[in-house]
């Protein structure tokens, strides 16, 4: 069962209160004006290249986006890069948003900047692993050895009406999908692809292509291209080795006397007080999560609670309502204009891949450790596993009241065995064969001559009894799992959600006792807190 940390919701203090501030010498590198901005002589005119193409209008007000998109009737895409593209950091995030079991999970991203070399547009990645914050001589030596690298390049077709280079977007993002998705894109039928989405907003571009994957099933390649703002006021924070963080790390070779040249920035959100004079202040900009409409209604409150639980932690550092949660809903249309693949939004997605996993990756500015966006994926098979555990737990608890004689009787009367009677009818035969094909508990299948490998060894036919097989750890694990769900679970189990002693003044049972809802055949007080805890884990 895959459960990975992804989003470090580190308790983020404002610059005024932050410790371990980063020196100015560790600022971003100068991207510079690389490449050769040659003239466009020899390139065909735009009208000739874009004949049959229409400009894609993405915003209601018709304002220009980050790039200008042109689309023809055959879903072919041309992209005009903004004229001031050189040296502007961008992040290309890519996801297979449908067609695979891990649909919606962030696959990867590319951080870099465009440069022009002759009639090629080249995406360059700066050297992020090794830097120098030393003197000018150290900087010169560093720049000679540790150079940037080319990620990919694409031909420039013409110069657009806005003065920027025009490239073939279909060739780059569809025919060149293996540059982004690797083996997952091999064998895909690009000749049958459909351009599902092409939108350009002021700071990001969203593209998606639907096409048959290698096995023939339809899938969707989604891209989100965004600018990475540099002047946000964010200050990187040096990680403390005594506390666990996700880190953004580089090696600083600027000081030869430094025994530890590794610099580790905490990966965190840019979260600051709106009013630094207040002990408890709302944030300047809250962290906002959208819950995808695919989350079943019966689970939404537990998912929401799991995300918002982190607000208690941020209150400890003086920020109230640091996280906000909004529910996307198909029936009302609420927030349905937002796509999970859009890098501007943080989403919590729900899948039914029958894989039983949860994952919460984030995208980070690799220069500073600032979290740019995050997406959490929860697979419903996780919940299915809990329901199965619940149904397995009840029969085992029922068996605890059976003494050895009763268990022997059940062998000849298996229809009365609670492990069989409480099972689904279609599973009973298989469970009976499983139970009575072995003489002991599943955890004790190893047979030796030593006392303790059979459940009642040492308890009978002896003057002095000794331990039989200890079953306590297995059931204690279940009890601890139950107890840790929520302190109120004990009073809920007692039939009193308010924690009273129980019963009314007449000594009768409380008629308003909390019984809760049944979620997939299991009490909500069992499933709900488990789901909330997994969401908390992934958000954290």
Describe the structure.
The chain is an alpha+beta fold and 540 residues long. The protein has a domain at 29-227. 21% of the residues lie in helices and 23% in strands. The protein has helices at residues 46-49, 136-145, 169-175, 178-181, 297-308, 311-315, 381-399, 404-412, 418-421, 428-436, 472-483, 489-493, 524-539, and strands spanning 3-4, 54-55, 68-71, 77-80, 90-98, 106-117, 120-125, 130-131, 149-155, 158-159, 165-168, 194-201, 204-212, 218-227, 247-252, 262-266, 287-291, 323-327, 346-351, 358-359, 362-364, 371-379, 518-519, 522-523. The strands form five sheets. Strands 1, 17, 18, 19, 20, 21 and 22 form a seven-stranded mixed sheet that branches. A seven-stranded antiparallel sheet has the order 9-7-6-5-14-13-12. The chain has a five-stranded antiparallel sheet with strand order 2-3-4-11-10. The radius of gyration is 30 Å and the shape is globular. Residues 1-27, 440-453, 457-477, 483-487, 496-504 and 506-514 have low confidence and may be disordered.
Radius of gyration: 30 Å
Name the average pLDDT: 79
The number of helices is: 13
Kindly, what is the distance between the CA atoms of the first and last residues, rounded to a whole number of angstroms?
A: 18 Å
Flag low-confidence runs: 1-27, 440-453, 457-477, 483-487, 496-504, 506-514
Instruction: Sum up the overall morphology in one term.
Output: globular
Question: Could you describe the largest sheet, including whether it forms a barrel?
Answer: 7 strands, mixed
The assigned structural class equals: alpha+beta
């Amino acid at each position: 069962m895959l459960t990975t940390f992804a989003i470090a919701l580190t308790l983020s203090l404002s610059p005024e209160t932050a410790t371990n501030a980063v020196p100015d010498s560790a600022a971003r590198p100068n991207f510079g004006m690389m490449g050769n901005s040659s003239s466009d002589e020899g390139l065909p005119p735009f009208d000739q290249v874009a004949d049959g193409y229409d400009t894609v209008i993405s915003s209601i007000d018709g304002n220009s986006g980050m790039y200008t998109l042109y689309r023809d009737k055959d879903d072919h895409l041309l992209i005009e890069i903004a004229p001031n593209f050189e040296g502007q950091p961008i992040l290309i995030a890519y996801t297979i948003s449908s067609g695979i079991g891990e649909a919606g999970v962030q696959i990867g991203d590319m951080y870099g900047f465009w440069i022009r070399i002759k009639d090629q547009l080249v995406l360059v990645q700066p050297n992020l692993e090794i830097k120098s914050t030393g003197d000018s001589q150290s900087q010169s030596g560093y720049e000679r050895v540790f150079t940037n690298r080319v990620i990919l390049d694409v031909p420039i077709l013409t110069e657009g009406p806005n003065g920027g280079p025009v490239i073939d977007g279909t060739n780059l993002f569809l025919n060149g999908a293996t540059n982004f998705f690797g083996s997952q894109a091999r064998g895909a039928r690009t000749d049958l692809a459909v351009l599902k989405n092409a939108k350009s907003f002021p700071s990001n571009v969203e593209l998606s292509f639907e096409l048959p994957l290698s096995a023939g099933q339809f899938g969707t390649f989604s891209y989100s291209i965004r600018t990475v703002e540099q002047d946000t006021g964010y200050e990187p924070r040096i990680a403390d080795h005594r506390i666990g963080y996700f880190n953004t790390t580089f090696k600083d070779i600027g000081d030869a006397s430094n025994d530890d040249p590794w610099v580790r920035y905490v990966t965190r959100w840019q979260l600051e007080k709106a009013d630094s004079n207040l002990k408890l202040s709302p944030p300047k900009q809250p962290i906002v999560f959208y819950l995808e409409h695919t989350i079943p209604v019966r689970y939404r409150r537990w998912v929401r609670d799991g995300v918002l639980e982190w607000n208690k932690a941020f209150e400890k550092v003086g920020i109230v309502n640091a996280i906000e949660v909004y529910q996307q809903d198909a029936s009302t249309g609420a927030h349905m204009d937002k796509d999970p693949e859009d890098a501007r939004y943080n989403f919590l997605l729900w899948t039914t891949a029958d894989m039983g996993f949860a994952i919460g990756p984030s995208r980070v500015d690799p220069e500073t450790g600032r979290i740019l966006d995050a997406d959490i994926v929860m697979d419903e098979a996780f919940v299915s596993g809990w329901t199965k555990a619940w149904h397995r737990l009840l029969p085992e608890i029922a068996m605890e009241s059976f003494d050895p004689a009763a268990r022997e009787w059940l062998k000849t009367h298996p229809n009365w065995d609670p492990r069989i009677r409480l099972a689904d009818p279609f599973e009973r035969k298989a469970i009976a064969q499983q139970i009575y094909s072995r003489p002991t508990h599943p955890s004790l299948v190893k047979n030796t001559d030593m006392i303790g490998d059979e459940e009642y060894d040492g308890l009978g036919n002896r003057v002095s009894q000794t331990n039989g097989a200890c079953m306590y750890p297995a059931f204690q694990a279940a009890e601890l799992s139950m107890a840790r769900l929520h302190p109120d679970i004990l009073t809920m189990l007692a039939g009193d959600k308010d924690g009273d002693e129980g019963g009314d003044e007449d000594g009768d049972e409380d008629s308003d006792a909390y019984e809760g809802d049944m979620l997939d055949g299991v009490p909500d007080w069992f499933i709900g807190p488990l789901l909330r805890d997994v969401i908390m884990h992934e958000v954290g």
